[in-house]
Amino acid sequence: MKRSMIAGIGMYVPKNVITNNDLTRYMDTSDEWIQERTGIQERRYADREGETTTTMGIAAATMAIENAGLQPTDIDFIIFATLSPDYYFPGCGVLVQRELKMREIGALDIRNQCSGFVYAISVADQFIKTGMYKNILVIGSEKHSFGLDMSTRGRNVSVIFGDGAGAVVLKATDSDRGIMSTHLHSDGESAEILAMYNPGTHANRWGNYADFNDAEIADMFMSHQMVDNAQLFPNMDGQAVFKKAVVKFPEVIGEALAANGLQPADIDMLVPHQANLRISQMVQKMLKLPDEKVYNNIQRYGNTTAASVPLALYEAWNEGKIKEGDIVCLAAFGSGFTWASALIRW
Ligand code: COA
Description:
Layout: E1 3-12, E2 17-19, H1 20-23, H2 31-38, E3 42-44, H3 53-67, E4 77-81, H4 92-99, E5 106-110, H5 116-129, E6 135-142, H6 155-158, E7 164-173, E8 178-186, E9 194-195, H7 214-221, H8 224-228, E10 235-236, H9 238-259, E11 269-272, H10 277-287, H11 298-301, H12 308-318, E12 327-334, E13 338-345
Parallel strand pairs: 4-5, 4-6, 11-12
Antiparallel strand pairs: 1-7, 2-3, 6-7, 8-13, 9-10, 12-13
Helix pairs in contact: 3-4, 9-10
């Protein structure tokens, strides 16, 4: 059976650097609080001149395709992971197809938030293993800066998130390099603990719009009540997320190792989703991994959700910290809750 290997990788972050001190202009917070609780020093925000989730994704994708030695027309399938799409629909995948002038290939958007990229890698891997596609472009991109509550009310969420994009090209190979296994999980019991409820059909329970005037219909989509109650912004119980994450990260990494007859010491590089530096450090401690085997860049970019794993993977690779033959473990946990891992022989 074919395997899928990462043939090319790319990243993009906006130029606009927002430090913790910059945030104190909008909300009651401090550099000390943010660094102590999350490890974040700064993040990037998209510029105001048309930079979107898709444009950032395209920049990362272009680099990944070039690194793979391919042209956009060589790609057989697009998978785009994001929770901050340009449009409510259609998804960002078709916009990539259009802008990169690709063939009329399939395009799939994945909405799995922080684990979206690892889920996307898993989906791509299945298509390649079955022989259906040879070259798949997988993108994770987010423009969080558009939808954060920048007042003190939203500070527990807003200080964490940043914008950026990462991408890989997965390619069919007959070698023993590439993705060894992927492992996907969910538990919807606490779906509302880390969620953005609107715009969503949960609130639009009136049915027939013909019975309402324009103002009433507008109110169903975005009412003053929603704005006043911060219902148009992400909602998070940070402590509940933290507690679950520090259990599920090691669990799903252990599952990937067990599936391949390996031990934590066999990992050459762990690239965890950059949720919070304290979460990564606790996971590192539980797995007894030395510092050089865990890659973190949350200090510079914050939590970029679906982009965080490919951004960190790109930088680890670009800094020469991942070499051919290394065992690389990707792991993610986030809203849903959903969590996932992928083990790769580089
Ligand atoms: N600046 C200053 N103070 C803040 C703040 C901010 N940005 N955000 C919250 N606070 C305050 C709270 O209001 C609270 O004040 P109080 O004690 O007067 O009520 C205090 O800090 C402690 O809040 P708490 O929520 O208990 O802090 P915490 O230690 O749990 O840290 C998080 C908050 C969000 C940093 C932490 O819970 C976390 O990182 N959780 C995981 C989140 C995550 O990874 N999300 C993404 C998942 S993919």
